[in-house]
Structures are given as C-alpha cells and as structure tokens.
UniProtKB/TrEMBL annotation:
Protein name as it appears in the record: Ribosomal protein L11 methyltransferase
Catalyzed reactions: L-lysyl-[protein] + 3 S-adenosyl-L-methionine = N(6),N(6),N(6)-trimethyl-L-lysyl-[protein] + 3 S-adenosyl-L-homocysteine + 3 H(+)
Amino-acid positions noted as binding S-adenosyl-L-methionine in the UniProt annotation, renumbered to this chain: T145, G166, D188, N227
UniProt source species: Thiomicrospira aerophila AL3
EC number, UniProt record: 2.1.1.-
Length: 295
C-alpha cells in the first residue's frame, strides 16, 4: 500500500491550525518537524514549544484526491496558497525493518558498545550493553549520553558505589555495573524510566536497584552520574552533594556549554569543584570531586 504525504513549512502560529485542517480533511497522522533553522534545547517545564518555522506533514491514504485536499486546505486556511504545499507519493515499506535498520551497534571510547538485541555484537569480548530503543530516554545516540558513556569507558568505576540520578533507560547505571561497580542505584521521577531500567538491567544480567526519587533510599556513593538538564541540575546541587562521599566524583551532562559556568558556580557552593571535561556540538560534560570539609 502507498501513501500520499502533503507537506508545508509554516510560521509557528499556523502549525496547529494547519494540523487541525489536515486532520479535518482525512489525514491519518500529522507530524511536526524542524527545518534546521532553530533548535530547542531546554524548554520551560510544562511547555511544549515548537519551532518558529515548522514543517507540518500530513499522511493520507493513496486513494485520496490530492487536488481536492489542497483546495480544502486553502479554503480552511486562505492565508496559505497551493504553491506552499508539496505533495509526494510515499511507497509502502516494511516499516519495522526500516526502523530497526536505523539502529546499529555504537562504540563509546575503547571498549564500550551499545548493541541492539536483534544484532550480533561486533566485538564479543568488549563490554557490550544490549539496549533497544523504548519508552524511556537514553539509547546512546544523544551527545550528552555519548559523552557520559565515553567517560565511563575511560574511568571504569571498579568496586565503586554508583548512583545514576535521572536514569531514563538505565543506560549509565547498566554501563557502570558492566564496568565493575560493586553497587548501582538508579532513580528518576518517571515510572516508565524505572520500568525500563529494571527491564534493561535484567536483559544485561546485572543488578541495579531502581526506584522513583521519592521512594528509593539512596546511600552515599563514590560516583554520581546525572544526565538531565541544567535547570534541574542546579536545583539538585545540595541533594547530589549530600549523596556523594568526600573525594567522590560527580559527572553532569544534559547541559549546554553556555550553561557550564552557572553550574560550576552553583556546585562550588556545595563543595564540588566541577571542570569542563568534554563538549560535543553545543553540549557539555562536567566532572568534579567533592572536597574534604574544612574544619
């Protein structure tokens, strides 16, 4: 079966009305996409911003008369002209296979790999994490996750106690366990993240104690990993410092390079001296040690 896709790039204020118009004319789905001119890194909590210029794509059954659709769209939205729409035929594919083909084994550092469960590990003797894309954030494709994994590969937490704060899929917790940690705790505010973490830990045959932030009792640990966002990381400074032993290491990511100085200042106030350890594109990785309290 084939499909017809009708696409238009419109201003932010027109995106939702165009979506409604496409659905009214029988679209099976409507998708918003960026145009490459603006990136949204860290939206305000409780908001779902879209781009100032947004690509709106409506997918229709191939039997639909595209000319009639375009006429209907210009009637519902007279501010748009037919020339602003692109109509294309989308051939049917094995979409499951197409989706699976997007994910290949990924290497981080020297010896750490993320391998989808349907593929063989390229290097069976390496440290291989079996991880499939799922409901919770974190498959290693984002620069912040990649930097954390690369850091773990270079600094394996052998015989250390580790906390993954804001665990998402549990990828950092599982990597820490595979790299020799003697105890690993993972926590998040999203129940789906806890479910994903426990499922992924079981698949990888490692032990991770996971629970919601308000439900789990976390011990003081020698290494804390937190790949979240700059705003929550700033708020968590006293909490993360409390969970970190003296001389313990803190690894933060999920923040922009431009937000680094603010967080370095914030954590200095709770006795942790952070340094910019790595950056990729606009994203930063901060690493620091909790200082010995002065008497």
């Amino acid at each position: 079966m084939a499909w017809i896709q009708i696409t238009s790039t419109v201003a932010e204020a027109q995106a939702e009305p165009l979506s409604d118009a496409l659905m009214e004319l029988g679209a099976l789905s409507v998708t918003f996409a960026e145009t490459g001119e603006q990136e949204i890194f860290e939206p305000e909590l409780g908001t779902t911003p879209i781009w100032q210029q947004t690509r709106v794509m409506g997918l229709f059954d191939a039997q639909v008369n595209s000319a009639e659709c375009l006429l209907g769209l210009t009637q519902l939205m007279p501010e748009l002209s037919p020339s602003q729409f692109k109509v294309e035929l989308i051939e049917d594919k094995d979409w499951v296979r197409e989706w699976m083909d997007q994910f290949q084994p990924m290497q981080f550092g020297t010896n750490l790999w993320i391998v989808p469960s349907w593929l063989a590990a390229p290097h069976p003797d390496a440290t291989n994490l079996l991880l499939d894309p799922g409901l919770a954030f974190g498959t290693g494709t984002h620069p912040t996750t990649a930097m954390c994994l690369t850091w773990l590969d270079a600094n394996p937490p052998v015989n250390k106690s580790v906390i993954d704060y804001g665990c998402g899929s549990g990828i950092l917790a599982i990597a820490a366990a595979k790299l020799g940690a003697n105890s690993v705790y993972a926590t998040d505010i999203d129940p789906q993240a806890i479910t994903a973490t426990l499922d992924n830990a079981q698949r990888n045959q490692v032990t991770v104690q996971a629970g919601l932030v308000n439900d789990i009792k976390l011990p003081q640990s020698q290494l804390i990993l937190a790949n979240i966002l700059a705003g929550p990381l700033a708020e968590l400074a006293p909490i993360l410092s409390q969970y970190l032993v003296t001389d313990g290491q803190l690894v933060l990511s999920g923040l922009l390079v431009s937000q680094s100085e603010q967080l370095i200042t914030c954590y200095r106030e709770v006795g942790i001296d952070l340094q910019l350890a790595n950056q990729h594109e606009d994203w930063a990785l901060l690493v620091g040690v909790k200082a010995t309290p002065t008497s």
